[in-house]
Each structure stands twice: as C-alpha cells, then as structure tokens.
Amino acid sequence: MEYEHFENEEHEWESNLKVTEGVDGPIQVNPKALERLKQNRQQLMPLEWYVDSILKGDRVALSKAITLVESALPKHQELAQKIIAACLPHSGKALRLGITGVPGAGKSTFIEALGMHLCKQGHKLAVLAIDPSSQRSKGSIMGDKTRMEQLSVEPNAYIRPSATAGTLGGVARKTRETIILCEAAGYDTIFVETVGVGQSETAVHSMVDFFLLILISGAGDELQGIKRGIMEMADGIAVNKADGDNVLRANRAAAECRNALHLFPLPESGQETKVTTCSAITGFNIDEVWKMVSDHVDAIRENGYLERKRAQQDVQMMLDTMDSALKNDFYQNPVIEDLLLLVESDVRSKRMSAYVGAQKLLDTYFSLLKKE
Amino acid sequence: MEYEHFENEEHEWESNLKVTEGVDGPIQVNPKALERLKQNRQQLMPLEWYVDSILKGDRVALSKAITLVESALPKHQELAQKIIAACLPHSGKALRLGITGVPGAGKSTFIEALGMHLCKQGHKLAVLAIDPSSQRSKGSIMGDKTRMEQLSVEPNAYIRPSATAGTLGGVARKTRETIILCEAAGYDTIFVETVGVGQSETAVHSMVDFFLLILISGAGDELQGIKRGIMEMADGIAVNKADGDNVLRANRAAAECRNALHLFPLPESGQETKVTTCSAITGFNIDEVWKMVSDHVDAIRENGYLERKRAQQDVQMMLDTMDSALKNDFYQNPVIEDLLLLVESDVRSKRMSAYVGAQKLLDTYFSLLKKE
Question: Where a domain ends, among A90, A124, A148?
Fold first, then answer.
C-alpha cells in the first residue's frame, strides 16, 4: 500500500518533467526536475513518527530527518521544517563545541580521543561537520569517519558525515538545524568540525559555545599569518602531537601562541584565550582540553555572555533562514525554472547580457507573485 | 540649484526615519535609515556624465561610478546598473588576471613590479581587490595601496582599494561590475587581487582569464595542505623572492610544485599549469611571469576555452545579480525593515523562535508583494 503510493508519486513527477527546445542540441530535459525525480524516490514517514522517534533517541529517525534537512526538494524541506519546529523546545541544552585545525594537525584523531573520553564519562556525543564543498573537489568527511574507529562504533556517539553542498550560508543553516535535531535526540555534547581551511570557521564560530583551534608545532612564518584570523576567533587552543620527542617543540609552540595572544585585546567573552598542549595518540592532557572547554562555558554562562551569544546566533539563524527561503521561492518556481534554462542558454551564447537576463527573470518572478 | 535639490532630498530622508519602541531601551532609531541618510549626502550626476566621462577614460568619473556600485542605497544601485548597462558593450576586451598568494609571499611588491613592467610597455592597468571582510577584522587594502609606491603615481595605472564588505556573492558581483567599468574606461589589463586566504579564491577564479598563485620557498608541510585546493585552481604559479641566497631554495620549491602538479589531472583549459621563479624586488623573471600569462591566454583563446569560460562566468554573474536583487528587494522594503527590528528584538529576548520570526517576516513580505 505504502509502496503503491510511492510508485504513484513517482509517475506524477515524471509527467511534470518539462522538455524544452535547447540551443546546442534538439531537446533538453530540465535537470532540476530529474534531480527531484531521483530524490523523490525516498519514502517519507508521518511527522509524528520522526518527532516521537527522535525524542526517544532513535538514531535511524534522526538520520532520516537530517537527510530531509539536507534535501533540496520542497516537500522534504516542508516536512523538515515541521520536524525542527517540534524539536525546537527540546533543544538548546547541549554544549556546542566547534573544532578547527590546520591540515595535518590530527583533527580526526583528536575528535576520536576527546569523544571517547566524554563517552566514557557518560556523555552522549554528536559529531557534525560543516563542509561548503569547493567547486572542484568534494569534501572527504566520509574518510574521516572511518578514521574514527572507536567513536564510530561507540553507542553513545553519533557521527554524521556531511553530505551537503552549496553556499556557506545554506550549509550553515542546515548545520544549525541538524544541531537542533541532535539535541532533541538527547545528545548533550555537539562537536561541529570545520572541513577545509579558512572557509567555514566564521560559520562554525556563529553556532557554537566554544571554538577550539588545534595546532601543531613547526608551523612556518607564513602559517602564522593564516592562523592570526582564526586565532582571533578561538576561545581556546590545543597544541596537538605533544608526544615522543615532539614534546619540547609542542611546549615551545604553545608558549609562542600565548605570546601572540597577548597582542590581541581580551575577547568579548571576557575570558582569556587559553592554550594547552595535548596528544590525541597517547591521550596526554585530553582531560585538560575538556576542562578548558567546560570551565570557559561555565564562566560565560555565569557572566551572561553565553546567553547574549546564543541570542545573537538565533538572530543569525533567522537571517539565514530568510535568505534561503527567498532563494528557494525564486528558484523553485516552475515558471522561473524553465525560463532560467532558456535565458541561461541565451546568456551563454552571448545573445543576451547577464544583466538583461537577470532582469528578465526578476521581472517575470515579481509579476507572477502579484498575480498569485 | 543642484545643492538645494540635494538639501531637500536629505530632509525627505530625515522625515522617513522611523522611531520604534525598543525592548532594551526606550527608543531606537532604525540604523539602516541613518546609514542611508549618511550615504545620501553624496551628490549624484546625470547618467550621461558618468558614461561619457568613463568612456573618455576619466578616472574621477570611474571612481565615482565604482562608489555607486558599492553603495547599498537603492537610488545609487539604480543609477549604477544604468551606467553598467551603458558600459557593457565597451567591456570584455581586457585580459583579466587573478592574483592570490600565501601571506608573506610579497603580493603587493609583486603587483607593483608586474604592474610597472606592463605600464612601461604601454598597457593601461586597473588593480582591484576582492575582500569579503571578516566579522572581526576589516580588510587593510588601503595599506597595500600605499605600499605600491610607483604604481600608485603611474598615470597608466588605476588602483581601487576595496571598500566593500558583505557576503562573498555580493562582493563578487560588485567586483565583476567594477571590471566592466574599468574595461569601458580603456584599461586593457585588470588585476583582481584576493585579500585573505581561502575565502575569496573561488570567487576571483570565477571572474578572471588567468589565476596566478604566488608562493615562496620554505613552506611547511601543513602549508602544502592549504595550497593544494588553491593549486588546483591556479593556471600558473610564481615562486617569488628568488633573490640573494634564496635562489636555490626558490628553485627547489618550484621543482616541488611541478612534481605536485603532476599528480593533478590536466586542467579543463587543456593547458598544463606552469611554474616559474621570480623576484619582485630585483625584477628577475617578471617578464617570464607575464609571458606565462599571455601565452596561456593566447592558447585558450585559440582552443575555444576562453570563450566557454567567459560564457560560464556570465551565467554566474547573472545568478549573483539575481541573488542580490532578491535580497535587496526584501531587506530594503520599508515595512520589512521596521518589522525586522521588532522581530529581531523578540528573537533576541527568546520571546520568539528564529523560525517563527523568519516565517512572520516572509509571510508579511509575500503578502505585501501581492497587494502591490
């Protein structure tokens, strides 16, 4: 019965596929319609099933709901927004930790070590990644998941490989929504990992309570320049790989960091940025890193900064939600979708300028809205 | 007469300033209205003046027009779009060179050296910067301008410090529009410099004919990871600071780059990514770097890739233009502007969730559009 319903839906979509006259070939099938046809094959459950199962801590339901959050299909988005609205009152209680690091700093190993440390203490941990994929290379967080060997089989840990692509604003919104779902599912600690360097730090910073920077010793002069902007954002720094004959160098790097931080003004949080060495491989000082995080969060909860920060993050979430909604309403309008194909082809072949093309689409869109 | 008109306009704006009841204090003045009031003090000239003067190569008119492109004020944007439309047929003939580099690579000195080399050959050069300013630190391109001592007084060079801030998409659109204006003003070579690391490379890549990466020797292992993504995008690499006792190290770094590049597939352009050493200080091989650029551009003009690339860039420009227009129409709607202040205050004080707030604003906006 359910299956039949799903089959019917598919046919409905198939008949909606628009075939338009192309320029470079005889016929073009609207690629977005094809994509929707593919996505539509996923079977949906009733809203209550998602919400009840998530609140019970069901990982399968959580994963399915996150997939809906990440989907571009309007009916998936609609359901996702309802699930989020229902989960919202049950969210907000977790400690949200953002983790970034230079390539080679051993971020995955560190997350595995700190994550296992927390799970052993009885914490429930969700590990998310923010990954605005570049044009040419796709993110490789799946590879990272398999590198977190212990954490990926730990019952109290939930690792979500990032499958989303798109603009940073869109990806940030989806990650914030995923945090809400994970918190409603009972995870009391959320790690948000940045993938790539320099692109997503600001976004992660805008959704966590503590932003941790992982460094290693031996960074060249040039790297210092790269780190500066990220160091400004960090609430704490862990110099990893303080093991074997690397301990002295790690200590020296930590001291250099402390010196550099003295040049910055005291952060808005009122808390000095702390620096510690650690080794994800031997487990050295992993507890100290966690103490640094939890002490800081306790302090900013006390001095009122946490509340102000989360309020600001809520406003940012509202702005991101509106930006996404405005774009979706435009690009998912079926008339615009088809017209875009034609105009794009005209712009590509220089028959129309980019500005005239944009204006034509915008005029059509706004006049459609008036008629609605 | 002109002056009186301008005075009147100002008063008109002043009377439009909305005063709303705030939560945290008794009275709030809409900050966007204040900002507009300030921006509105700039006196506007007729469209023909801008276009005629730009086509004659007038630098003052060019600068004023770019200021309009960068302005957020609706009437400035309207005039800017008309100027661009009029300049568009006179654009597209320049060679557009994107320049990026790790911090400390001597980008400014390099631009000064290559720029002076080109001006002496009779080229007319415009140097632009793309700078999506981070939340905490503003870009410092003004500092760079003063470091380009010779170029900043060279009559054939036009250096435009980037004053824009905002989302990457918005900044990219404004830079593309500035390129059009510079080309219409007769500049046959455009440099677009990235400010910061990792954020704006993709945007610059999407608007230039050749993307040049400037490196120096002595980069640590970690830096290699950072470079990889950017190296993939580069059409050519210049290892700078090949002077004094650094020549051998620069040669070795160049050799390492060539080895690393062999691991990548041949770029879409069909041209291998070339690597050369140079010294911006001594002038060594600066001509070779330019030969690398112009040979590449000649080759992709020949094999048809340049045309395809620019067509793709035009489509991207159309999409960015539409995204900006959609956001502007929303955020510059006076009803939305005032409602946003109230809703934001409710979200900030937890009286309303971010989603409910976003939905309220979106519903208001779309019902306003229907009534128009």
Answer: A90
Give the Cα separation of B180 and B187 in Å (integer).
Answer: 10
Q: How far is A117 from chain B (nearest CA, A)?
A: 27
Q: Provide the number of CB pairs (under 8 Å) joining chain A to chain B.
A: 176
Note whether B67 and B167 are same-domain residues: no
The distance between the two most distant Cα atoms of chain B, rounded to a whole number of Å, is: 73
Nearest CA-CA partner of B57 in B68, B46, B69, B65: B65
CA distance B90 to B123: 17
Q: Pick A232's closest partner by Cβ from B137, B219, B370.
A: B137
Whether residues B220 and B120 fall in one domain: yes
CB contact under 8 A, A104 and B225: yes
Please tell me what DSSP assigns to residue A300: H
Q: How far is CA B211 from the centre of its chain?
A: 14
> Is there a single domain that holds both residue A224 and residue A178?
yes
Locate tokens 């338009």: which residue?
A20
Instruction: Identify the CA nearest to B222 among candidates A204, A165, A198.
Output: A198
User: What single-letter DSSP state applies at residue A121?
Assistant: T
Do A197 and A229 lie in a common domain? yes
Is beta strand B27-29 parallel, antiparallel or unpaired with respect to B19-21? antiparallel
* pLDDT in 10s for each residue of chain A, 372 residues: 333 333 333 333 333 444 444 444 445 566 666 666 666 666 799 999 999 999 999 999 999 999 999 887 888 988 998 999 999 999 999 999 999 887 678 888 999 999 999 999 999 999 998 866 543 333 344 444 556 889 989 999 999 976 555 666 678 888 999 999 999 999 999 999 987 555 677 788 889 999 999 988 865 443 444 556 677 789 999 999 999 999 999 998 898 888 888 877 888 899 999 999 999 999 999 999 999 999 999 999 999 999 999 999 999 889 988 998 999 899 989 999 999 999 999 999 888 889 899 999 999 999 999 887
Are A265 and A348 in the same domain? no
Q: How many CB atoms lie within 10 A of CB A201?
A: 24
Cross-strand bridge partners of residue A54? none
Distance between CA atoms of B329 and B323, rounded to whole angstroms? Answer: 10
According to DSSP, residue B208 is labeled -
- Given an 8 Å threshold on Cβ–Cβ distance, is B197 in contact with A104? no
Q: How far apart are CA A216 and CA A279, in angstroms?
A: 10
Q: Do B326 and A330 touch (CB under 8 A)?
A: yes
Q: What backbone phi and psi angles, to 5 degrees, belong to B211?
A: -115, 115
- Is B8 among the domain residues? no
- DSSP class of residue A164 equals -
> Do B142 and B260 fall within a single domain?
yes
Question: Please, which residues bridge with residue B312 across strands?
Answer: none
Task: Quickly count: other Cβ atoms within 10 Å of residue A169's Cβ.
Answer: 20
Which residue has tokens 């500066």? Answer: A228
Same domain, B79 and B223: no
Task: Give the total number of structural domains in chain A.
Answer: 3
Query: The domain containing residue B361 runs over which residues?
Result: 333-371
Coil, strand or helix at B72: coil
Q: Is residue B254 located within the same domain as residue B165?
A: yes
- Looking at chain A, which residue has its C-alpha nearest residue B362? A322
Rounded-to-integer distance, Cα B327 and Cα B329, Å: 6
Do the domain assignments include residue A281? yes
- What CATH number is attached to the domain comprising A257? 3.40.50.300
